[in-house]
Design a protein that fits this description.
This protein has helices at 35-39, 97-105, 108-120, 127-139, 195-215, 223-250, 256-271, 273-283; strands at residues 5-7, 26-28, 45-60, 70-74, 77-83, 88-95, 152-155, 161-169, 174-175, 178-180, 186-187. With 285 residues, the chain is α+β, with helices and mostly antiparallel strands. The chain has 2 domains: 5-44 and 170-246, FAD/NAD(P)-binding domain (3-Layer(bba) Sandwich), CATH 3.50.50; 49-163, D-Amino Acid Oxidase, subunit A, domain 2 (D-Amino Acid Oxidase, Chain A, domain 2, 2-Layer Sandwich), CATH 3.30.9.10. The radius of gyration is 23 Å and the shape is globular. Bound molecules: flavin-adenine dinucleotide. Residues 1-2, 4, 29-31, 35, 53, 55, 82, 92, 163, 182-184, 190, 193-197, 199 line the site of flavin-adenine dinucleotide. Flavin-adenine dinucleotide (FAD) binds at residues 1-2, 4, 29-31, 35, 53, 55, 82, 92, 163, 182-184, 190, 193-197, 199. One of its GO terms (cellular component) is mitochondrion.
Length: 285
């Protein structure tokens, strides 16, 4: 959002000796280390995943229609390509901090090879899960065909950067005269690509709540009016955040029963179009 504080309300006139005193709302849109949140004396609940998100801009071999986002869950964490234009995609690659730093400083061609490996290489599979999935596929007609993203041919110069990944949630989004939006209020793992959507939802809700409050005669920034924003967003954000955290945990283990359950869940979702549609709608916000 690139805004630390939005001052919602303007001075209308300052004329001669006249001084106008106006109530303002401070909106903390200043990210995970929010200064506004600190000033509101709100201490977030945090979990450090001990993972880094390596981002980069990469060029693809196919110059066709690059309109599909790809994600593969690897033992080290997910790797994802998000389309930017016909030939370029944005990369988000989860790794341990040491691996991420090594990939960031690797010569470009070595990095491209490692990235193609991440998407194309066959990793050893959990035998129990493979047997279960094979048995299931004999009962259901749909056969899962593995699909591949376009090959990566280059990484844009100086586009590689690493960010620590974690979970964070402010126990309260509002105080008298102040409200938090976006990552200042909540932080999720990028595996579901929902961080920005949650923030956009906050902004839409906050502007509506402020407009309604002023229209109903509340002083702007009144905490009771702002609490409506907090309630509405907690109801939306918390289930999504815990869903994403659950996925992060689910894909961080090699424990066979869990691997089996998650594979089963994916298979069921793949074979039940209405369920798949619900997940797709949620992901698109
Ligand atoms: C590796 C990685 C990959 C991600 N991928 C995705 C994705 O694919 N899809 C998705 O939806 N989300 C993704 N996210 C999450 C997404 O980036 C965040 O949810 C989103 O950027 C939050 O927006 P924001 O405006 O709240 O905070 P920020 O984007 O952090 O913006 C805060 C702004 O405030 C400024 N600021 C902070 N403090 C001050 C100060 N004291 N004075 C002046 N300025 C200040 C900062 O410079 C910054 O510009 C990803 C996150 C990471 C780490």
């Amino acid at each position: 959002m690139n805004l630390v504080v939005c001052w919602i309300m303007m001075v209308i006139a300052l004329n001669g000796n006249m001084i106008l005193h106006l109530r303002l709302v401070k909106v903390g849109a200043d990210g995970i280390n929010s200064l506004v949140r600190k000033r509101m004396n709100i201490e977030p609940f945090t979990i450090n995943y001990n993972q880094m998100g390596l981002v980069a801009t990469v060029e693809l071999s196919d110059s066709g229609d690059n309109s599909v986002a790809w994600q593969r869950f690897l033992p080290t964490g997910p790797v994802a390509l998000l389309p930017l234009n016909d030939t370029t995609s944005s990369l988000v690659w989860t790794h341990t901090p040491a691996q991420a730093k090594e990939l960031q400083s690797m010569p470009p061609q070595e990095f491209v090879d490692a990235l193609n490996d991440a998407f194309y290489k066959d990793y050893p599979k959990d035998t129990m899960t493979t047997n279960l999935m094979d048995t299931l596929s004999t009962f259901c007609s749909a056969k899962t065909i593995r699909q591949y993203p376009p090959a990566i041919v280059a990484v844009k110069d100086k586009s590689r950067a690493c960010f620590p990944l974690g979970f964070g949630h402010a126990p309260s989004y509002v105080a008298q005269g102040a409200a938090l939006v976006g990552d200042a209020a909540h932080r999720v793992h990028p595996l579901a690509g929902q961080g920005v959507n949650l923030g956009f939802g906050d902004v839409k809700c906050l502007t509506q709540v402020l407009a309604d409050a002023v229209y109903s005669g509340y002083p702007i920034g009144d905490k009771n009016a702002l609490l409506k924003y907090e309630r509405e967003r907690l109801m939306k954000n918390v289930p999504i955040m815990f869903g994403i955290h659950g996925l992060q945990q689910l894909y961080s283990t090699t424990f066979s029963p869990v691997v089996m359950l998650r594979s089963l869940g994916l298979q069921i979702t793949q074979n039940l179009p209405p369920l798949k549609k619900i997940f797709m709608q949620q992901a698109m916000g």
